[in-house]
Amino acid sequence: MERPVNMRGSMKIAMVYARFMNSDGQDRSVGGIQTYLFNLGQVCSKHHHEPIIYQAASRPFKSQVGPISVVGVPVSNPGKHTKQLVEAAASAIDLKKDLLIFGADRYAMDIGTNRCISIQHGIEWDLLAKYGHPTSRLRRIVGDSIYQVIRRRRAIKAYLQCPNRVCVDYNFLNWLRTFLVSELPGRDWVILNSADIAPEKVVSAKEKNKESIEILFARRFHVYRGTRIMAEAAKRLLAKHGNIEFTFAGEGPDETWLKNYFSSENRVQFIKYKPEQSLDVHLQHDIAVIPSLASEGSSLSVSEAMGAGCAVVATAVGGITNMIINGYNGFLCIPTANDLEKQIEILIADDNKRLLMGTRAYDTAKEALSLDKWEESWAQVIEEVTE
Known about the structure:
By secondary structure, the protein is of the alpha/beta class. The strands form two sheets. It has an eight-stranded mixed beta sheet with strand order 3-4-2-1-5-6-7-8, sandwiched between helices. A six-stranded parallel beta sheet has the order 11-10-9-12-13-14, with helices on both faces. It has helices at 32-46, 82-92, 137-142, 144-160, 171-177, 200-204, 227-240, 255-261, 278-283, 300-307, 337-349, 351-368, 371-386; strands spanning 12-16, 50-57, 61-65, 68-74, 99-102, 116-120, 164-167, 187-190, 213-218, 244-249, 268-271, 287-290, 311-315, 331-333. The chain folds into two domains: 12-194 and 371-386, 3-Layer(aba) Sandwich (Rossmann fold); 200-368, Glycogen Phosphorylase B (Rossmann fold), CATH 3.40.50. The chain starts with 11 loop residues before the first strand and ends with a helix. Helix 1 (32-46) links the parallel strand 1 (12-16) and strand 2.
């Protein structure tokens, strides 16, 4: 049942994020945070608030994406746009009755009021040097080890800039507590990333005795998202099992490498899909693999797979461990090709185990990771901050 709209205190809710659309406001950017803010804008609209996103732009523009107004703010320095965007958003609303949301906590600044919320999207500075920012001038000067220390300090400082904070997993807060010597100031909420949940009858109707087992990798094609270890594991599994097929769904810098790697393999296909097509794509697959090496909060890819009743194999990285209980509603593995292959093979070899993992994943998603529950949690946070 849909939660009743709170008509009390309708307001503008300004959100700050640099890349919700492209720099001229013509197309919506693709990414997890962009999807997150789009869903958040819908929550605001359902509760009769006016969502507005302020982003960096090459020229001034005003666009509309669903219920969200998007305002392009020309920035003088693309690398140092935070202050300009925050000032533009704060000056366009009434900070005594409206609300400002920092779309990621790295945008958080002291704006002189408690009517603000920052979103912490998970630990992303656990990337090895080769996956991080090797062209960074600071990294070249201080070296990799000191650079990582600086990034950790920046992460703590950014988080504490705002008095009201929403985390997408418990992993970040547990890490943060290891550095604190006193109580954490301000208020914190944890709201795991969510996804659409397929109707139960649709999940139940997924074929149980198929001739082939469909395995899905639906991530951005980047090395730190596990493309290389996924490819290595898939190549070995294809050589051993004639009843499996792999789908790589996405795009990114590793796309050419992946296509070349599987150029002679007719049981591997490459597709692209829009965010709103994710549920349908996952419903066509039996196993979903999320093999990230680093930089994960609670994973949207995991919740999407679980919501479609896929059996999930994921690496034990970041907030993924808040979603998967190893051996109960999916499998967690060490981020190596060998361990990935081993866990996927269990699901290939045992039909009953695969179906059981998919059913338990679906039940978990339905009870804890549905978009409806996510919306209710966010509506409650907004109400608490602004009451």
